[in-house]
């Protein structure tokens, strides 16, 4: 079985010329980036949602909380949010889903914030389902986050027709929308042990996106050393995005390695206090190399991302050192020094 997956992965790479030809030139990508200014923001989900499904389903979509929390982001100088979508909500009612996306964009635009939307995600809980989502498990990081599309669909290309409709339909609807900064096609595709098995859907997602060819750049972020998925993402992304949860020196070293591609760089996930990834130390590195900076987490809420990935606190007490997030649900901040660093970064 392992050999079959390897052969399939190689075939994917050898037959990937069509979408590659439609990628932006480096010159066009850099011209676009020069117009964006200093990009700084967070991965956003309202504190009232445990996952992407709860954020976007009609009965739990929460514009009041979204408005309030994006207002807090605006108040500290943030101008971009990375936001996860989910294929099942589109499948259930695409018109309602697209309307809620538009409502969300109106709120974000009111706060002068552009959005980097994410289509698929290999992380956390498998077998996602519509309807009422689980309650948070006390003290457990992302206890209810949902993969998209999940293993059953990822491994069954007969079901990809609805995924193609989701990607193309969403991109077509917002293809010329200036409120959308860019499109992140697949978050950490090789995560959860998928490795080479993620390559066929990753390849197809780039093909679908580049058949639409929206006016905004398309990308997918490198996050580990999985060579085959990284090759697809580097070869077909208009701009280079990446994740780095390490200290400032490690971050700087990675930026230097990525500069060889000659394209704009945006770090779409960083800031893990336990692992020495801090605003005060990382933001100066981003500024030095003119790299966009999108940390994980804005408001501590149902996702429980103040707790570290591998250090649950089953009693649900507040950790002495938050792993992610900036604000409490009442709008107070975890660290004034961090807020000062963020504000200084965008001046």
Describe, in plain words, how this protein is organized in 3D.
Helices cover 41% and strands 12% of the residues. The chain is of the alpha/beta class and 347 residues long. It is globular, with a radius of gyration of 19 Å. The protein has one domain (37-345): TIM Barrel. An eight-stranded parallel sheet has the order 5-4-3-2-1-8-7-6. It contains 14 helices and eight strands. The N and C termini lie far apart (54 Å). α5 packs parallel to α7, α12 runs parallel beside α13 (279-289) and α13 packs parallel to α14. Residues 1-21 form the signal peptide. GO terms for molecular function: hydrolase activity. Residues 165-290 form the Glycoside hydrolase family 2 catalytic domain. Pfam families: Glyco_hydro_2_C.
Helix content: 40-55%
CATH topology group: TIM Barrel
CATH architecture: Alpha-Beta Barrel
**Strand elements, count:** 8
Low-confidence stretches: 15-21
Strand content: 5-15%
Q: CATH-wise, what's the superfamily?
A: Glycosidases
Treating each run of at least 4 consecutive H or I residues as one helix, how many helices? 14
> What is the end-to-end distance?
54 Å
Structural class: alpha/beta
CATH class: Alpha Beta
Radius of gyration: 19 Å
Helix and strand string, N-terminal first?
HHHEHHEHHEHHEHEHEHEHEH
List keywords for this structure.
347 residues, alpha/beta, TIM Barrel, eight-stranded parallel β-sheet, 8 strands
Brief description of this entry?
By secondary structure, the protein is of the alpha/beta class. It contains 14 helices and eight strands. The protein has helices at residues 2-14, 17-20, 26-34, 52-56, 63-75, 87-92, 94-110, 151-154, 160-173, 199-212, 227-236, 248-258, 279-289, 336-345, and strands at residues 40-43, 80-84, 114-121, 180-187, 218-219, 240-243, 265-269, 292-296.
